[in-house]
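Long-time lurker. I teach an intro course on protein structure, and each term I like to show students one example going from raw sequence to a predicted 3D structure in C-alpha cell notation. This year I'd like something fresh instead of my usual example. Would anyone be willing to generate the C-alpha cells for the chain below so I can use it in lecture? Attribution to the forum is fine with me.
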Amino acid sequence: MPLTPLYSRSTRHYSFQNHVTLHQKAHNELEELGEPVSETKKVFEFLKYISDLTLQMGMQTVMGDPARLDNFELCQQYLLTLQTNTEQQRRNKRNVSGVSRESQGSTKKPKDRYYSSKEWHELGSAGRDAVNVLRSERGRAQGERGDGRGGRGGRTA
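-- Reply from a regular --
Happy to contribute to a lecture. Here you go:
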C-alpha cells in the first residue's frame, strides 16, 4: 500500500475526511493495477495510520465488530461520524463562555443601598432600574428632602 500520512487530529490543511479519501484512492489504484486488497487488510491499514486519541474508543469498537472489521466502507463511515460528532461537541463546549451574566437572570432582589461602581455595573440594566425605583419610592416616603444632588442641602447661594 502506498505511504499514507498519519492522522493525529484535524488541521486546516488535513482533515479526517482527507485521510479517508487518501485511503480510498490508494485502494482504487491498487485494484486498477490488479492487486486488490482484502477488506480486512484495508481496515487494518486504515486504523494503523490513526493516532487521534478521540478516535481510540471508536477504533476499539471497530476491532471488536466483525461487520465493521470486514467492511472498509462501514468502518470509515462509523469513524467519520464519530470524529464529526466529537469535533462538534468540542466546539459547543467552547461557546458556553460566551453567555453574559446579565442574561442568566439573577434571583437576588436588588436593595436600596450604596453600590460601588463595580457592583452597580454588575447589577445590569434591569437591576439598576429596580434600585432606582426603590430609591424614588424611598424619596417619596421621606417627603423629597434636598435637591437630589447629594450634600447636606438646605443652603442657598
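Some talking points for your students: The helical segments are 16-32, 39-48, 56-64, 66-69, 72-94, 117-141. The chain has two domains: 16-91, 106-141.
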